[in-house]
Amino acid sequence: MAYRAISKAVALANAHTAYLAWLAKNPGERSAAYEAITNKKTGKDKISRTAGFIIPFGVNVASRVYLPRQVLATSQSTATNSALAGAVASALNTTGATQRAFPGTASPYGTGGSASYELSVKKDFKFARVSVKQITTVATQKSNSRITNNLYQKNVTSTVTAPFGQIVGGETEVAAVEAITASESIATILASQTQKASIRFIAEGSK
After folding, report:
1. What is the pLDDT, as a whole number, of residue 102?
2. Rounded to whole angstroms, how far apart are CA atoms 45 and 38?
């Protein structure tokens, strides 16, 4: 067995011992361990939402079926990370992945233009989602994990997640993902070298 493999086994054994000790802690002790972290995020990111509608993928757009849903508001001035939240909101708005009003009608609950709109409410429906994570503060030194005691770089991150669907003209989920990723606001965020970001998509119907 190589020396590298042996040293790795020792490190894993030490981490396992620390993990078992963590499992033995009560909730109060775990909370105290978290509070002891100096470079940590305080609370969940706040974003601004507004009432809107989404067209699920796989639905024939000619049937005009929209599902009511809280979507990202156009203005994200009060968001925790207004630049990031604004970029995601802009991408969904410019690509048409979310709708804040029905096209061609003043009221989504009646008849507008040349056709009626059907509204459906499905509480258990899982919309497709986009999640963009950005490093807001780079750690100047590594910290010990409170669970395994291993050293790692604990950067402070910000994450914005939002639901989306197909555009009014219809498209596949793959096409929507490509359009959102290529949108100017998202491309700018992902290109930043100082606040590195990553993007991921959760497929429609997934938890």
Report:
1. 60
2. 19
Shared domain check, 44 and 32: no
- Pick the more confident residue, 29 or 107: 29
More reliable by pLDDT, 185 or 169: 185
71: domain range?
A: 39-202
What distances in angstroms separate CA 46 from CA 35, 40, 121, 122, one per listed residue?
21, 16, 25, 25
| Residue 126 and residue 104 in contact, taking contact as beta carbons nearer than 8 Å | no
Domain count, the chain: 2
Pairing of strands 65-72, 49-54: antiparallel
Task: Name the pTM for this structure.
Answer: 0.74
* 47 and 108 co-located in one domain: yes
- Does 89 fall in a domain? yes
